[in-house]
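Sharing in case it's useful to others searching the archive later.

Someone asked me privately for the predicted structure of Fibulin-5, so I'm posting the question and my answer publicly. Question first, with the sequence:
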Amino acid sequence: MQGLKRTLTVFMLAICLPSPGKAQQQCTNGFDLDRASGQCLDIDECRTIPEACRGDMMCVNQNGGYLCIPRTNPMYRSPYMNPYSNMYPRPPAPVPAPNYPTATRPLCRFGYQLDESNQCIDVDECASESHQCNPTQICINTEGGYTCSCTEGYWLLEGQCLDIDECRYGYCQQLCANVPGSYSCTCNPGFTLNEDGRSCQDDAVHHYHLLKKSQLSCPFSCTRDVNECASENPCVQNCVNTYGSFLCRCEPGYELEADGITCIDMDECSFSEFLCQHECVNAAGSYYCSCPPGYLLLDDRRSCQDINECENRNFTCTQQQTCFNMQGGYKCLDPVRCADPYIQINENRCMCPAENPGCREQPFTILYRDMDMVSGRSVPSDIFQMQATSRYPGAYYIFQIKSGNEGREFYMRQTGPISATLVMTRPVKGPRDIQLDLEMITVNTVVNFRGSSVIRLRIYVSQYSF
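And my answer, the predicted structure tokens:
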């Protein structure tokens, strides 16, 4: 071939690969299976491949391959050259091509070996201990290989056997303890583990069945049962007669002590802090929920709802003050009073007149707003919106917190050309009163104007989170 070295040699050795359980063989490249003899015979590539060698190279067939050699090479002479061609000088007598023997003994593929009759049989890697399974794994032989599995109670994860936590999947009816490779079931006091090792049976039923079995062994010599509950009633609350004995049971809200007779109050409030929204109060045999002052217990007997004292007119504000309801209480707000040089426009707005020299460095207006908020509100949280009421050509607006944010619990996020949102970034615990001055700066480059307005936001944080 063009570009190849002049001494290029190609050689292929035939290997017969028996298929498991079949007598038919497969041959490697350069050989073809003779179905009559079952042997792998060489393919003459010089005859079957058009222009196997090009240029000044000639093709010489080999066992399992072929060679491309220069036509002037004195060592070889192609038997297919035109004997009447004068293009090349006649070479000396040809040297016969190397004769490589075919493989008479078949080779088995990986996982198999030859038996005494030269047949490929499976290698049992597990029996010969030639496997690579971990000590915690089980070797399982397969046709031509093996697999590594885990013992019962383990599962295979990334080549490792990990313990299965059976307790997570409810293997036991009552109490479950996970152990490596297994689990153990137990029962609550007053119950007995059944023979299946998983379910539990009431002691009274279990005792009854034991007595039934004993009756079968002594049907004529066993004495008649005495009802202890009817004769002396040893239990503090409820008595259940059983064959040959008795059991004590407690009313709802009580639990049986270790002596099996006495009932004590069950403290339901100690079970969970979520039984009541505010406070759980334990009572004899029960419990109840209570709400703080300013709240009303709802019909679900656990949730608390704010009482609107202003709406119910249950407040102590003066006639000049305004009642402002908040969660769990109310505020008596004094009337807005504008400090000099501001003048009052209405009940919640102050204006600094432009003609007053003292107003040059002051916000043009101050608008008072009030809002309430529960303690510990989740963050981040949008709590107040601010926007310009009009827009002029060439003007743009800047929003910022002018004062009251010393603890950096809030920031202003501009949401549009004329609007912004006050965002709470840190939880605020109550009770607490907060006053923020939110400033909107107006800049007009057309008329060279800069002014500002302020919203004085008063936030009343309640004591509770509801």
